Amino acid sequence: MLIKDIDKLQSTKNFIKNLSYDEIKDYFNKNDQQTFRADQLYLDLYSRRCNSFDEILTLPKNLRDKLTEDFHFYSLEINNVRYSSDGSVKFLFKLTDGNYVEAVFMPWYEADSETIERATLCISSMAGCPVKCTFCATGSMGKIRNLTTAEIVDQVLLASDYMKSDINNIVFMGMGEPLLNYHNVAKSISIFTDSRSSWLSRRKITLSTVGIPVKIKALASHPTPVKLALSLHATTNDVRNQIIPVLKNIPLEDIFSAVEYFYRKTKMPITYEYIPFAGLNDTLADAKRLAKISRRVPSRVNLIPYNDISFTNPQGFAKDLKPTPIEEVHDFAKHIRDFGGWVTVRDTFGQDIEAACGQLALSQ
Length: 364
Ligand code: SAH
Ligand code: SF4
Hints:
Layout: E1 14-15, H1 21-30, H2 36-46, H3 61-70, E2 71-72, E3 76-83, E4 89-95, E5 100-109, E6 116-122, E7 126-128, E8 143-146, H4 149-163, E9 169-172, H5 182-192, E10 205-209, H6 213-220, E11 227-231, H7 237-243, H8 252-266, E12 270-274, H9 284-294, E13 299-303, H10 316-319, H11 326-338, E14 343-345, H12 359-363
Parallel strand pairs: 1-2, 6-9, 9-10, 10-11, 11-12, 12-13, 13-14
Antiparallel strand pairs: 3-4, 4-5, 5-6, 7-8
The structure holds S-adenosyl-L-homocysteine and iron/sulfur cluster.
Iron/sulfur cluster binds at residues 129, 131-133, 136, 138-139, 176-177, 210, 231, 357.
């Protein structure tokens, strides 16, 4: 289903998917309706997946009209869809203010069949990103704005509807730093994991962060905390400050303390994401430190091959970043293993449709 003219929606009305279950309940109560109406609407939105208020036939016509008067239904539209030869599908969404974000659908097929066995959707939490990591296409855009809860939730609903497939896993690894949009991201997690709709278990959601200690601790106290992936990319403060200069006031030790706190509270293992850059963070000493870091709490190191972002015309330090050749990435993984760390090398999806985050949106 394709929505047209999303940018012509009136800005005065709210979007229904910005509301938590309790807020929907309050809305109905204020309009002299009983609480079971909130349950009906909630299930129609997230379990039956209605595509408009008109489709919500469990509610009487006068209530459907009232909802249409008070709320917009979708907060973004599919603007472009690109298919990769490896099966992944990249969605470009247009927001009501004309900005763009993207999400990537990654299917796994049943053996010798075209039936999708399970699918992961990588979603965005911001348009652009203020952290401006030197290696990241989204970072080169700077911050445009946080996404609303509805814009986060609608990426999943629209991609699932378009692909005619359930989404079994959600990863916050698209555009933006989710922990710097904590309020809206936390609310979307509550919607995804709400027991009424039995949409997703919290263990099927992973939030990837560059490491904002106070918000890592907040996530640990969320009613349904999700899995944590930490984008580490360096084993010393000196190197990290070079590749992520915006965070130079946050020492690695503060991040590790927050990660330890997260593990103590949630008992969920951590993933450390690490892009090996030739000659910068891929030495034997790095492998040894990584193994040591990964033993502090149950965790694994996921080595991510660097996706080229030369089309963003990087300058200065960013221009000189070179990927460690893939055979050497595997050697690096072996060293980490030999030092006692648990490590995997990430399969890259969608390289022919620009896999690095932010690329499609940037080209708009
Ligand atoms: N802001 C969050 C989540 C979005 S980025 C974070 O940084 O974790 C998701 C992942 O993509 C991060 O691990 C990030 O380091 C990685 N990434 C960014 N640019 C990349 C590139 N050019 N090549 C490979 N991975 C990249
Ligand atoms: Fe932002 Fe993550 Fe990209 Fe860094 S890697 S600029 S935190 S989206």
